[in-house]
Amino acid sequence: MTAEELVLAQEESAMTAPEPVTLGRGRIVLRRFLRRKLAVAGLVILVLMFALAFIGPYLSSWNYKDQDYNNFLTGPSATHWFGTTQIGSDVYAQTMRGLQKSLIIGLLAAVLSTGVAGIVGATAGYFGGWTDRVLMWFVDLLLVLPSFLILAITSPLFHGRTWLLFVILLAAFNWMVTARMVRGLARSLREREFVTAAEVMGVHPLRIITRHLLPNMASLLIIDATLNVGGTIIAETSLSYFGFGVQPPDVSLGTIIADGTDSALNYPWLFYPAGVLLILTVMAVAFVGDGLRDAMDDAAGTASSTSTPGDAA
Amino acid sequence: MSDDAVLEVTDLHVSFPGEKGRPLAAVRGLSYQVRRGETLAIVGESGSGKSVSSMAAIGLLPTNAKVTGSVRFRGRELLGLNDKEMSRIRGAGIAMVFQDPLSALTPVYRVGEAIAAAIRVHREVTSDAAMRRAVELLELVGIPDPARRALAFPHEFSGGMRQRVMIAMAIANDPDVIIADEPTTALDVTVQAQILEVLATAKQATGAAIVLITHDLGVVAGFADRAAVMYAGRPVETAAVEELFAAPKMPYTAGLLSSLPRLDAGRGVRLRSIPGAPPSLAELGAGCPFAPRCAFAVDLCRTTEPELLEIGQGRAAACHRTGEGLDLMAGPSGDSGLADQDSDTAPEAASDAEGAPTEPEAPAKPEAAAVAEPIVGAEPVLTVRDLIKHHPLTKGSIIRRRIGTVRAVDGVSLDIAAGTTLALVGESGSGKTTTVMEILRLRTPQGGSISVLGQDLEALNQGRGVRRRAQPVRAGIAAVFQDPLASLDPRLPVGDLLAEPLRTHGHGKTAGRVRELLEMVGLEASHANRFPREFSGGQRQRVAIARALALEPRLVVLDEPVSALDVSVRAGILNLLADLQRELGLAYLFVSHDLAVVRHVADRVAVLNLGRIVEYGDADSVFEDPRHPYTRALLSAVPVPDPVVERQRERIVLPGDPPSPVVLDGDAEALRGCRFRSRCPLYAALEKPEARELCESTDPALTPVGDADRSAACHHLDAWVPALVQSGTVA
Ligand code: SF4
Ligand code: SF4
Which UniProt keywords apply (chain B) (predicted)? Predict the structure, then answer.
């Protein structure tokens, strides 16, 4: 425990001394999370991004679908804050619209993908036997089947449907590798004594999975989810080729970046606003993820070993 | 004295860079000398710096450690030598024996080669000669069939045999000093006795000085000449072993000695416990580091740290009050520690907030004891009959073939009456853990029957809704495991951990009960928001005990509940368990390999060997008059923390390792006759061929012994005459 935390622990006990309240794990982790400046900063940035994405469009008179036939490929100006595109769309309005889409798609798909990976992997690992074999067979199947093939086949079915379906698809092609890792971890955690202790206490297997196994691999899951946010935002563009999700004239950060990359040097305004926002998003998510991980870890004392060398004596 | 000392350590300090740039002092001023042929024990608990100090002496610390002072080996300063010079001295001049030999032996070398290589590093000999010498050494340390075993790999040896190999390697180059770091800690008692004997042989063969680092005062009593007791990185008392045990001069040493459960003490004697836990190095302040736990502390103790002062010939103690002639063993108030004087030491507020607070005793309630007189002999809470648990042993990873059977539990019968304690004693492989898990998992046994709280498990597991019907049984039986750090989910705060059994069994409001439970085991309600990691070992075990008590069970299975704890906090846990049993009328199934602890807690004992009970009955009667040869050997192998008694005791050293419960397919011979035969000293001493024949042909059944309520499984219970015992005294 660091000196700083000693003080905090003291405060904690001092605070709770008069009327000891038993807090749940969630409250304690939240409290420790809120003590991490970087993590809170990340959270604030994310909130601001959402605010920007949903309030931003009203600040400008341009709509992302509008085209200004007087201005093609003009740089930033008072009328077009971020300039215009080849066909005269307002880059600011498009970026805001893209941010809206990407934030939701990225966060949702990431959480969904990691969640499915965690549940499927942990279930397979914990129960073993047939459950394990069937689930892993399914995972392997999804891994070897090329995702674009499935997309090509199913594409007519989904065409033009809501973009939520698109989020689900994005997650569906993303969770398998993590699920395999989770399964491995679950298999070794299953042998740990605290799991045995819960079993002989009569705790329900599903509760063991959600309450003991998954929290004990929180580091892996959080890192995975964090990486997924950036990954899905980019991956979304490649799926757009198949006619999914974000279709012109609608835009996402991914499509803006993909379109703007070629002209990044000549017409930087097409590229940079979306690029910077994407980086900010990914960074903010990483800070939040890190903070969450630390908050969970240092509660459990696994992040930095609190044992001193002398303890080994 | 210093002229003939082979190893002389003077004012050794070791510190590691700590967090926030504050160095952590692991060793703070250790001095000692050892002469040839002498054994010095360095005694201490975790964090006392005992291991770090010897690692520092031989230059095996990570480079970020800062070491000052002086370490002289035969007059030559070792600190500051470079790696090359140091490794020449290591091995040839100073040898090490570690606790875990598997990690110290290179897995890809045959043990003979490893020893030969060690010889050739330091000496110019041909590889043949080195190999021959290696085989000789293996023979010296008692490896059977050394020429053949020299060609085996480390993993093919058992723990005890590996430790012998380590010792053979250590003496390969005739060292002047052997540093043995907890050499027997990971081993079974009977094997520990063997290894101590081998160490004694090694000492004789080489005439080396031995520095024995240990936490086990029993081993010290039997094996060492002098001892240095370390606490919080400093030596607090040094003395000849006899004097140390007879009249300790420092409260910590005295407390340790009087808190030990002893084989030669009676059942249920209340142990004196030292409150609190060993301090962590990061939170040492000014003053005596023992002051928060010391019953004799005065104001001076909290401000000034006492020096280690010479108080007699070869004796020194670090305590401000040494000169006052206090009766340390009796405690400050003069009463003999039978009352609950260990409950009156108020926890120190200062250290309390630091995550490793002191450990107050649960308030003992004498009046409750009078009311809740245990209903001894009432209906049984657990009945086990002829329990069998075998599992197949397979080989090959692609195509698995069955090559034998692990007969983990092979016909065990037990009874526990409400409110009483049954101890299950055995070495590794005896099947005690398997038995316990069979009971706790509440499955239908493979063979035999188990009935928990009057509910037969086979009947329970039939029909529909097994899970639901099993819940009331699960609520009635709880478990505490050996290592609380492993058995408490590190990611749950204590409040959630304690609420888990309550929620599982459908109790809505948990906060009140959680608080009650914490207080019951001597913790504070505010501890509910901390994580297991933030507690000391003893406190964690208290949390585990609190969790076990959450549903008011009638039977608690205690699987080695104090083995993983520091010596000074064990007494507190044992006292707590005794209080809880008295107040709540609990029945305990107490699993342990530590016979001294068992002696202290058990009403009845069952001695397990190879999945069978070999002796069973009233604890007093079994401990005072053991009848089965195995029980006798076990009891004689347990070191008694009293050098006078220990050195005169007759010792039965069992040959070999605890055998494995594996029976290969088609090996009918293994199942014939008494399975203890290979190690049985009585069998080996039997003279009449027909008596031996009986052991060889017929498996002895448990038969009643005497008139007491006990039984043993041996054909020759009456044939035991002390003259038959091959005795050998360690040291
Ligand atoms: S110096 Fe004081 S606190 Fe330390 S052991 Fe002696 S009496 Fe106890
Ligand atoms: S039956 Fe024979 S071999 Fe078995 S314990 Fe008795 S004397 Fe030893």
Answer: ATP-binding, Cell membrane, Membrane, Nucleotide-binding, Transport
